[in-house]
UniProtKB/TrEMBL annotation:
Top-level taxon of the source organism: Eukaryota
Pfam family, one: PMEI
Residues in the signal sequence: none
TM annotation in the entry: none
Domain Pectinesterase inhibitor: residue ranges: 11-156
Upper lineage: Eukaryota, Viridiplantae, Streptophyta, Embryophyta, Tracheophyta
Listed name of the protein: Pectinesterase inhibitor domain-containing protein
NCBIfam families the UniProt entry points to: PME_inhib (TIGR01614)
Length: 163
C-alpha cells in the first residue's frame, strides 16, 4: 500500500504508523519520528528528510566516537579496526548528504542506491568487529542503532517512489 498524501499534503499519524510498521520495530520508529517537532506538519518528502537528519546525527556521533578510540587505543590491531569503521562511517555520512541532495532535486529513485551503500558500509564495519569481543561491543550497538535508522530512511523513501 502506498501512502497518498492527504488533502493538505500532511501525513497523518496513521500513515506514519503504517510506514513504521514496515520496519522491524513499529513502536521505536514511530516514537523516534514523532520526537521531532517537524513531524507535526510534514509531508512524505519532509518525513524522509527528518529520518535522514536523525540518521545523520547518529552517524556523525558514532564517527566521532570511533575516531576518539582511534586516537586513544594503543593496540595496533584494534586501532586498524577502528580506522576501518571510521572510514565506513565517513562514507555513510557522505551517502546521507547525497540523499539530502536527491530530496532537494526530486531525484527520489537515486535515494535507494545511497541507502544500499550505507547498509553495505555498516555491514563492513560489523564484519571487522566480528571477532573483536568486548572491544567492539559498544561499536556493534552503535551499528545496530544506525542500521535501524537507515532502515527507516529506506522504508519512508521507498514510499516516495510509489507516489
Amino acid at each position: 500500500m502506498s501512502i497518498a498524501p492527504s488533502a493538505t499534503g500532511k501525513l497523518t499519524d496513521t500513515e506514519i504508523k503504517h510506514l513504521c510498521s514496515k520496519t522491524n520495530n513499529l513502536r521505536s520508529c514511530y516514537k523516534l519520528l514523532k520526537s521531532d517537532h517537524r513531524t507535526k506538519n510534514v509531508d512524505a518528502r519532509g518525513l524522509v528528510e527528518i529520518s535522514v537528519d536523525l540518521a545523520s546525527k547518529n552517524a556523525k556521533k558514532t564517527y566521532s566516537l570511533i575516531n576518539s578510540f582511534v586516537n586513544t587505543t594503543h593496540d595496533s590491531r584494534l586501532k586498524n579496526i577502528y580506522k576501518s569503521c571510521s572510514s565506513n562511517y565517513n562514507d555513510i555520512i557522505r551517502d546521507l548528504k547525497v540523499i539530502k541532495n536527491c530530496l532537494k532535486s526530486g531525484a527520489f529513485k537515486n535515494i535507494h542506491v545511497q541507502v544500499k551503500d550505507a547498509f553495505e558500509e555498516i555491514k563492513q564495519c560489523k564484519k571487522v568487529f566480528g571477532g573483536a569481543t568486548s572491544d567492539g561491543a559498544h561499536i556493534n550497538k552503535k551499528n545496530q542503532e544506525f542500521e535501524f535508522l537507515i532502515s527507516i530512511v529506506e522504508v519512508i523513501s521507498d514510499n516516495l517512489n510509489k507516489n
